[in-house]
Amino acid sequence: MTPTDGRSRTASESKDTTTITTTTTTAITNGQATAANSTTGGHTTEDCLEVTIFDEGVDGGRLPDVVAESKIYGVTDEDEPLESYLAITIQVFIPFLIAGLGMVGAGLVLDLVQHWVVFEKVNELMILVPALLGLKGNLEMTLASRLSTQANLGHMDMPKEQWHMIIGNLVLIQCQAIVVGFLGSVVAIVMGAFRNGTVSLDHAYLLCASSLVTASLASFVLGLITAGVIVFSRHCHINPDNVATPIAASLGDITSLALLSWIATILYECIDKQDWVAPLVIACYVLVTPLWVWIAKKNKYTNDVLYFGWTPVMVAMLISSCGGLILEFMVSRFENLTVFQPVINGVGGNLVAVQASRISTALHKQAELGTLLIPPGHTHPVIFITPIANFFGKGMHARTTRVLMTMVIPGHIIFIYLINYMKDGNTSMTPLFVFVYLCAAMLQVAALLYIAYIMIHWMWKRKIDPDNSAIPYLTAMGDLLGISLLAIAFQFLYLVGDQDFDTP
Predict the structure, then answer these.
(1) How far is CA 47 from CA 36, 38, 50, in A?
(2) Which of 101, 6, 149, 48 is nearest to 417 (CA)?
């Protein structure tokens, strides 16, 4: 797909015929259509359809006529009919519920381990939790988004390419997990130092080692599960965009949190007895990282991500760490808040990741990276849309947005009452609490879904692959929004005297 400096061209597949052909050319330029038919007789008919496409190239941002060989905006092939509300709901809601159970489990684990000695003595662990869980989730969900897009494009149908792609991506997320785990611990140490005024070397080693081991082990196991889910979905003719990201997150939070708590406890018990354990763990990961980098660099499916996929992860880490500061501060005021934090963050992150993966796949199918198709009734591509168009429009993405929004209230009601049941009714589920909590959850998801549409199209226009970049930003914003809105909700309930909140 190449610019033609304002000139129109016609593309058609060349067919082997010894007789005369019939050509129909339709040109749509600046909203006006002209049709010309030239017929000389014959046995073969070729139809070519052309649209104006926006491409930021060397022509300084003009709107050249470019041949769209893939898909016309708003038009679907018979081979790929528009998914119905029911199909999207079934394919998304079941994995969403499974993921929700994992979030509930993570919330209960966090509520339990906050009283462990290591969490009470090493306060920076509470700062590390949202950043590490968010970053780990980003790695799994970007992996799911990348592989889902490749599966939908048919690039994983051949077993050899399938395994080459999966192995390359597993090695890649090992590289990312090690770097993310290290930097996450550094951020937690620095933020803890600002709050406490001092830095303990033993605690710094503990944070760094436990973060590295947790990120590495969890990434490997969850990466295998994610790849298996996508391959299985493809064989069952299920859109992997709908199921891969929720499944990737279903065990992610609880696995990472349990590993972090267990490893941190072991390393804490080694302080003053076997002080060499944590530094040795760090040294081993430093030595093995170049090997993973070399393997990922040699793989054609992961080479680009290895070089250009770090900025979103790093920025997401900083955003999630700000959420961690809010969590640490609010836990000192409202002890019950911790059990809801993984749930509200996880639900928002999972739903927006589904939408992001679907939009990215659609863009990959429609045109080349950097090229946006012009929607009907417009003279230029549309990136910034109104909230009304995003939630009540007629397009396929607006349809998915409405389906995802309908899942927020029933999903959260199931999860918070399950939490209440698991905690033997200690969370005081008053009607006002449920209402305020659901309002916070709805606001969070609505904001994320609206931002997702604009951000992904903006990235695509600037030749940034959203499969690698969009989800980290969106889930990090979801973490920050979720913790902030949850803190505001608890503060509001405290001020109106709705219920007696626990104080540590």
Answers:
(1) 11, 12, 10
(2) 101
Written as six digits, the tokens of 354 are: 């589904």
Residues 6+ apart with CB under 8 A from 249: 99, 102, 103, 137, 140, 141, 346, 349, 350, 353
User: What average pLDDT is seen over the chain?
Assistant: 78
Q: Would you mind telling me the total number of residues written for the chain in this entry?
A: 504
Which residue in the block uniquely carries the two structure tokens 């979030």? 103
Do 371 and 52 contact (CB within 8 A), yes or no? no
Residue among 90, 104, 86 at smallest CA distance from 413: 104
Nearest to 353 by CA among 256, 243, 270, 463: 243
Mean pLDDT of 207-219: 92
Residue 2: per-residue pLDDT: 41
Query: Cβ distance 249 to 354 under 8 Å?
Result: no
* Contact indicator for 176, 139 with CB cutoff of 8 Å: yes
Cβ partners under 8 Å of residue 229, min gap 6: 144, 240, 243, 244, 247, 248
Which of 119, 98, 453 is closest to 263 using CA atoms? 119
Residues 6+ apart with CB under 8 A from 441: 344, 347, 348, 408, 409, 412, 485
Report how far residue 472's alpha carbon sits from residue 180's, in angstroms, rounded to the nearest whole number.
12
Residue of higher predicted confidence among 504 and 280: 280
* β-pair partners for 45: 22
Q: CA–CA separation, 356 vs 351, rounded Å?
A: 9
| Domain positions in the chain | 85-496
In which residue are the tokens 């090493």 written?
122
User: CA of 148: how far to CAs of 228, 239, 243, 359, in Å?
Assistant: 11, 8, 9, 12
Which residues does 445 contact at the CB level (< 8 Å), separation at least 6? 347, 348, 351, 352, 404, 405, 408
Q: Are 375 and 73 in contact (CB under 8 A)?
A: yes
Compute the distance between CA of residue 458 and CA of residue 428 in angstroms, rounded to an integer.
44
Position 363, amino acid: L
CA distance 1 to 235: 31
Q: Of 3-17, 85-99, 203-217, 425-439, which range is least confident?
A: 3-17
- Reply yes or no on whether the pLDDT at 94 is more than 50: yes
Structure tokens that stand for 296 in this block: 């990922």
Task: Please tell me the distance from the alpha carbon of residue 390 to that of residue 455, in angstroms, as a whole number.
Answer: 13
Distance between CA atoms of residues 72 and 51, nearest Å? 7
The closest alpha carbon to 364, from 241, 466, 226, belongs to 466
Predicted TM-score of the model (pTM): 0.70
| β-pair partners for 34 | 27
Percentage, residues of the chain above pLDDT 90: 23
CA dist., res. 19 & res. 42, Å (int): 6
The answer to whether the CB of 412 falls within 8 A of the CB of 435 is no
Task: Characterize the bridge pairing of strands 44-55 and 65-66.
Answer: antiparallel
CA distance 70 to 47: 14
